[in-house]
């Protein structure tokens, strides 16, 4: 598994944890807590996947209101609070990468989000995520 794919998976799990906690814990503390669990398989804070995850978590947390507004615009007939937490956070990561992470090609960001949806979401997650991120990508004029 690539460093960034693993980082995205970590970021999704940490964002899920942060949302359950009411966004009260900061990114570094949430990632540290994540690393203390057996799920992290002995990763340290300086591992490249963890560093990438940290950048995603910090970026999503910092820009959450902007990301949520973009998601709302394209999630026709879906209120953000009615989406599955996993799908909502995958979309946040995907939109964050499309809008703010310029060294990730848009197609890669979308594909990685779809893969997260397949792995962690429901059977409907991947097409739902694809539809929203594809529309965001087209509107942002990224390709």
UniProtKB/TrEMBL annotation:
Keyword Glycoprotein attributed: no
Keyword presence, ATP-binding: no
InterPro entries to which the protein is assigned, alphabetical: NusB-like_sf, NusB_fam, NusB_RsmB_TIM44
Top-level taxon of origin: Bacteria
Residue ranges of every copy of the NusB/RsmB/TIM44 domain listed in the record: 7-138
Keyword terms of this UniProt record: RNA-binding, Transcription, Transcription antitermination, Transcription regulation
CDD domains: Terminator_NusB (cd00619)
An MF annotation (GO) of this entry: RNA binding
GO biological processes: DNA-templated transcription termination; transcription antitermination
GO CC terms of this entry: cytosol
Functional summary from the UniProt entry: Involved in transcription antitermination. Required for transcription of ribosomal RNA (rRNA) genes. Binds specifically to the boxA antiterminator sequence of the ribosomal RNA (rrn) operons.
Family statement drawn from the similarity comment of this UniProt entry: Belongs to the NusB family.
HAMAP family the UniProt entry points to: NusB
Entry-linked PANTHER family: ANTITERMINATION NUSB DOMAIN-CONTAINING PROTEIN, N UTILIZATION SUBSTANCE PROTEIN B-RELATED
Name assigned to this protein: Transcription antitermination protein NusB
């Amino acid at each position: 598994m690539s460093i960034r794919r693993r980082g995205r998976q970590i970021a999704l799990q940490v964002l899920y944890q942060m949302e359950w906690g009411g966004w009260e814990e900061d990114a570094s503390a949430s990632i540290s807590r994540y690393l203390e669990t057996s799920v992290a398989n002995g990763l340290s804070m300086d591992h490249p996947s963890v560093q990438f995850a940290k950048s995603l978590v910090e970026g999503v947390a910092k820009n959450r209101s902007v990301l949520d507004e973009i998601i709302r615009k394209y999630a026709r007939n879906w209120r953000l609070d009615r989406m599955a937490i996993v799908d909502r956070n995958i979309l946040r990561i995907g939109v964050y990468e499309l809008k703010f992470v310029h060294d990730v090609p848009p197609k890669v960001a979308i594909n990685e989000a779809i893969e997260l949806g397949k792995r962690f979401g429901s059977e409907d997650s991947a097409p739902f995520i694809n539809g929203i991120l594809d529309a965001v990508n087209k509107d942002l004029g990224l390709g």
